[in-house]
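Cross-posting from the modeling subforum.

Setting up a comparison between two proteins and wanted a second pair of eyes on the formatting. Protein 1 (sequence, then C-alpha cells):
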Amino acid sequence: MCCIPQRLGQMDICKGVVSLATAAGAICLLYKAIRAGIKCQPPRCSASPICVARLAVEREQHGRDSGELRRLLNSLECKQDEYAKSMILHSITRCVYLLESEASACTNDDITLVGSMLDDKDNSVKIQALNTLKAFSGIRKFRLKIQEHSIKVLELISTIWDSQLHIAGLRLLNNLPLPDFAHPQLRRVMPALMEILQSDYTLAQVQAARLLSNLAQKNDLLYDILNCQVHSNFLNLFQSTQPGSLLLEVLLFAERLSEGRSSPHYRAVKWHYNEQSVHEAVFGDDSRLADRLLALVIHPEEDVQIQACKVIVSLQCPQDVGVWPSCPPSHSCFSNAE
C-alpha cells in the first residue's frame, strides 16, 4: 500500500511530460505551417498586372516612388514578343490609373513609344496600346500629344473589324477633343462609324453613337453625317427592346442632328441627300421615327423617356426650334392624331 502514492506521483509526472511534448510538437507544426505559407506566397517581383499594381500602391501609400511605371516603359523599348508587349501595356495602363504622380512624371516620348505600338501586327497589342493612351489622356498635359495619333486610331477602327478594338479606339476618341486636322479623315471613315453603330455589339454601338453625337455639333461635318448611307432598318436602333444605354445615346444623336439641321447656318444652304441616307431615315417624309419615339415615351427607364421627349420637342418645329408660334402645323413631324 505504501507504494501506491509513489506510483501515482510518477504517473502524474509522466502525464506532464507527455503534455509538454504534445504542446511542443503542436508549436513546431504551427511554425512549419506558417513558414511554408510564407514561402508559398507569390513573389513580390511578379510581372503579373495584379502584383505590379499591389506593389506600386503599397509604395505609393508610403510616399515612395515605386519606379514600376518607369521600369515597364523601359521594358517596352526592348524587343518583346506580342504576348509580353500586351501584358506590359496592360500593366502600364493599371499603373497610370493608380499612380498619378508617377504617370504625371512621364514625358511625351513615353506617349510616342506607346503610340508606336498601334503599328504592331497583333490586334491584342493594338487594343492594349489604345487602352494605355486612354489612361494617359486623363492627364491634361498629354492630350495634345495623344491627339497626334487620332488619324491612326480612325484608320484602325475603319479598317479592322474587331469589336474590342472598336470599343478601345472609340473610347479614346471620345475622351479627346478631336482636332480640326482630323476632320478630313473623319469624313472618310463616316461609313465605317455608321456600320459600327448598326452592328450587334452594344458596347461598340454606344461608343459610336457618342462619337457621332459629338461630331454632329461640328458645322463642317453635319452634312457628311446626314448624307451617310445606312441600312433600311436603321430605325431599329430606336426600338424599345434595345438596351437603355444604347437608346439614350441614339436619342441624343437624333436630338443633335435635329438641332444642327435647324440652325440658321445649315439652313442657309439647300442640301441634297441620298435616298438611303441618315437624313431620309430620320427626317424623311416616309420616316417612322415618330412611331418609335412615341413608344419610347412610355419606356420603363425614366432617362429614356426624358430623352425621347427632348427629341420630340426638337422635331416639332424643324425650321425654328424653340419659336413655337411661327411654326405651322404642317412643319411638325407628328400629325394631330399622334
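Protein 2 (same layout):
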Amino acid sequence: MVGTGKDLFDFIAGTLASFVDTEDESLKAHFAQSGKVRESGFAFSFPVRQTSVKSGIVIHWTKGFKVDDAVGKDIVKQFQDAISRSGHQIAISALVNDTVGTLAGGRFNFEEETMIGCIIGTGTNACYVERADSVQKWADPLPKSGQMVINMEWGNFHSPFLPRTFADDIVDKDSVNPGDQWFEKMISGMYLGEIVRLVLARMAEEAQLFGGSPPAKLLEKLSLGTPHVSKMHADASPDLQVVAEVLEDVYGIETTTLEERKIVREVCDILGKRGGRLAAAGLYGILKKIGRTERSQNGFQQKKKTVIAMDGGLFEHHEPYRAYMEEALHELMGSEALYEVSLRLQNDGSGVGAALLAASHSQFK
C-alpha cells in the first residue's frame, strides 16, 4: 500500500498470473492455437483522469495507499508492463472504476432499472447515470444513448455541515492524506473501528469507563478493527456476551459490567447509525439530481422501480449499518414517493462489471 508503482503492479500482475496458471489445459490450448491473447478488465478504485476506455492518469491515492511515483502516469500502461514482466500475454481492454463496474453488473443482472452504483467497504464511492447534455466538461460528440456514467469520487466530499467530531479530526490528521477524503473517513470501513476506539479511549480517560486507568492497548492507534465493531454492534444477547468477548480478546479487559458493555455497544450504534445515514443522504442527493425523488400527484400512481447496485464488505456484512442506511433512504424518499428505490447487493460487482465491460470492448469480438 505504500511504496513504488513497480512493486505494487508486479504484485498484482503476479497474482493474476497465478490465477491464469490454474486454467484448464484445453483453455490454454485454445489460446495457443487461435493466436488470441487473454483479455481482462481492470477495476481500479482510485481517482483517475480517464483518457480512453483502456487508459487513465492517476490523480491521487485514497484508502491509505501512497504510491507517489505512479501519480500522473497511465495506470493501465503500468499494469500492462508488469504483466509483460510476469511472462504472460494478457491485454487490458477496459479500465473501470469499481463503482462503474458495480453499476454495469447491476444493469446486467437486475430486471429493474439500475441508475446508481455505490461501494461502501474499505473506502467508499458512487457513480450514476446522467443525461449526457448535462455534462459541461464533455467536449466530444454526445453518445447515441444520450447518457453518460459519472464517477463522483464522493469520498472526497467536504462540507461544513458534516457532523464531524474530535475523533474525525484525529483520524484525518493521522492518515496518509490529511485534509482529503473527509466523507470516506466518516462512513467507510477503513476508519470506523478507529473512530470508535478514539471515543472509547476518551471515555475511559475522562470518565473511567472501565474503572481506573484506561487499558494501555486501548490507547494504541488502529487497535480496534471495523470487524470488531460490527460484531459488537450486532450483539443482541441479553448480557452482551459478544461485546465482553471482544473487549477481552482485543484489550485484555477480563471483567466488565453490563452497564459498561451497554455503553460500548451504544457507541458502536451511534457511529454506525451516523455512517449509514450519511451514506443514505449521499444517495438521496444523487436521486434528487436525476429526478427520482418526485412525489406521486394523487397517491394512486403505480410506483416506478429504481435500483442502486451496492457492493463492499461494510454494506454486505455490517447488518445494523445497512439497516440504518435503508431506513434513512426510505425516510428521505417519503411514503408518497413516485419511485420505489431499493439497495441491491451486487456481489463482487466491480469485478463482474469490469469483466462484462472488457468483453464488450474485446478486440476479438
